[in-house]
Amino acid sequence: MFKRIFLSFISLMIFFAPYYIYGDSTKTLLLIVSESNWEEFVSSPFISNFIPRSSIGSMSIRTNHQNKRIEYYGTINAGRRWNYYELNDMGAVDNGLGDYLNQSGLSTAFFSDKDELIKIIENQYGKTSYKTEDFEELYSDNNKKTLLKSDIILIDMDLYKGEENQEFLIDFIENRPIRLYIFCPYSQDNKLTPFLLYDSKEAYPGLIRSTTTRREGIITNLDIAPSILSYYGIDSSTMVSKGIESYYTKDAYKKIIKDLEKICFLNYYRSDIIKNYIIFLITTLIIYVLLEKIDNKILNRFYDSLTIFALWLPVLFMMTFIRNINFVYGLFIVFFLLIIILLNKFPYEKILKFTALGVFIILVFDSIFNSFLQQNSFLGYDPVIGARFYGIGNEYGGIILGSFYLLIYFISNSSYFMIISLALHFFLAIILGMPFFGANFGATISLFAGMILFCIQYCKNYNIKSLSLLFIIIIVFFIIWIFIDNFLIEEKSHLGQMIFQSTNGNINVFIQVIWRKLIMNLQLIRYSLWSKLLAFSLIIMTIKFDLNNDFLRMLAVPFIGAIIAGIIFNDSGILMGSTSSIYFVFPYLRSCSLYNVEK
Question: What average pLDDT does the segment 533-560 reach?
């Protein structure tokens, strides 16, 4: 008898276990707001009530198609770059947050009359566990019951802006364990929207951070779903991010506003600065063509100054410590005058050699120490655009490659040229490729393409065995790189994320990435000024092609090979090829003039 009672008790415990676990666990509230900037965000009495006790930051709401509003919501559910054409036969998001929650016994509730918003937490059938029909009183009896029996709740705050609704919601949050997310998932005007994370168990002021951005105070719309899942101990390995982390910060709001002012300053002037830079480069090339036949010392000195200045400008773009555009342009003028003075004291070749070494060292050291200068550069990646948040961007990836091969040219007369060159190639591969440094797969592939062609060109005295050994070393390097990226570090590079998703069943990610790279390059060719610069440079190089020129004979094969590989394997390969070509075309054209003078 006792044994039967005991077994019955155990059976009941097993049967009610899920209700015990999830019924009393912390609820998650997703409050969707339309306040898309911080001024509006903090002006809300409801939101400002939680800011002193919450972790805050800005969220990148970038999607694949900005004109497809549904993608802003579906991306949050999927936890990856989701496309509108991935809707299943039910018109819903497959294998996303909603499915994982339901499969784990957690219930979802939807408080909104906007059909698109349900994409954030819907399951594969386009449903949630509960859905309200009362969009006026959040505190109505039916709504209260739904709130109490649901685990993850999405509320459209635009429907419940009344004072009584907000007072009820504050009281509801204050009197039970709640994990609260307040954010704006869609905005026409802002690509970085305010984000607040409040946890009743750990209520302290702080900044948010995620592995997708590696920057305090900035996350993406890919981070929300894995953050919710990991909080409930649910596996989210098919998603890109590891979720959102919070760091205690005393003056979090002040820091957020200060960082946003810097980001907005760079974003506001970025396009004009880059446009003027490209126009300056093209104009300098035209000046060379027009003045080439004129043998005048002053004109030659002027062109030398323009060449050196063009090569140093990407470094000057990083000197944005004072947020004043007049200061930036003033810095350019002062530096140009300094170059003129130095060219009166030192030979052009010596200044060019110092330029190659200086630009290369500055960018390498910056990449080792978290790319602080590149993050604050007009030529660096822009968090507002949201394409990249860490490592080496494609612009500076091209500049590092360009300055590197220019440096290789200047050490060509050293006794151990091949050993030094190969060592520098592998060193730079680590800087460009490793996820804790540059994390730029396209730039690394470009470097290895240049390296292989460099070895073929200069290893004529070496046997096939030596070259085979080199190729094996390169392959081993890639294997080690992929192993480290996927198994030894948490913060994966873009390549690591792609491989990780593929091994977890999302094979389509390869096709999507390749297609996106192709489309991006086609768009750059059609619309970007960088493509015009690259085309103009290639035309002039074709006209001035001279195999007797040492500079061309030494660098043309590896340099052009690296550019072609960059275009093929990089979604902004045109851009990277353009920036790297600056460090080849300008010195080459000047070397043509010097060569003609020597003849």
Answer: 87
Reply yes or no on whether the pLDDT at 462 is more than 80: no
In whole angstroms, how large is the CA radius of gyration of the chain?
A: 29
**Domain span at residue 110?**
25-250
Same domain, 238 and 295: no
For residue range 110-148, list pLDDT tens digits in order. Answer: 999 998 999 999 999 999 999 999 999 999 999 999 999
CB 500 within 8 A of CB 238: no
Beta strands in 280-351 (DSSP E): none
**Structural domain ending residue among the three candidates 227, 250, 273:** 250
Q: CA dist 554 to 126, 456, 560, 591, Å?
A: 61, 12, 11, 13
Provide the whole-model pTM.
0.85
pLDDT for the residue 595: 46
Q: Tell me, rounded to whole angstroms, the distance of Cα 221 from its chain centroid.
A: 13
Residue 90 sits in the same domain as residue 142: yes
Do 242 and 271 belong together in one domain?
no
- 170 or 513: whose pLDDT is higher? 170
Q: Give the integer Cα–Cα distance in Å for 436 and 524.
A: 28
Which residue in the block uniquely carries the two structure tokens 């504050």? Answer: 170
CATH label of the domain that carries residue 172: 3.40.720.10
Give DSSP secondary structure letters for 283-307.
Answer: HHHHHHHHHTT---HHHHHHHHHHH
User: What is the spatial distance between Cα 192 and Cα 256, in angstroms, rounded to a whole number?
Assistant: 12
User: Does residue 324 share a domain with residue 239?
Assistant: no
Specify whether the CB–CB gap between 385 and 338 falls below 8 A: no
Same-domain check for residues 155 and 226: yes
pLDDT at 399: 96
Q: How many domains does the chain have?
A: 2
- For residues 386 and 316, give the distance between their C-alpha atoms in angstroms, rounded to a whole number: 23
Phi-psi region of 505 (alpha: psi -120 to 50; beta: other; left: phi over 0): left
277 plus 302 within the same structural domain: yes
Per the DSSP assignment, residues forming a β-bridge with 219 are: 59
Bridge partners for 192 per DSSP = 60
75, 77, 81, 60: which is closest to 511 by C-alpha? 81
The C-alpha atoms of residue 38 and residue 33 are separated, in whole angstroms, by 12
CA distance 377 to 320: 7
Q: How far apart are CA 548 and CA 261, in angstroms?
A: 52
Would you state the pLDDT for residue 93?
93
Q: What is the mean pLDDT of residues 481-486?
A: 74
Asked if residue 488 belongs to a domain, the reply is: yes
Tell me which residue has tokens 């063009």: 310
Token duo for residue 550: 């040492």
Q: In terms of domains, do 307 and 326 share one?
A: yes
Domain-located, residue 203: yes
Rounded CA separation 32/158 (Å)? 8
- Residues 6+ positions from 468 with CB-CB distance below 8 Å: none
Q: What is the dihedral of CA 342, 348, 352, 353, to 10 degrees?
A: -100
CA separation for the pair 499, 486 (Å, rounded):
8
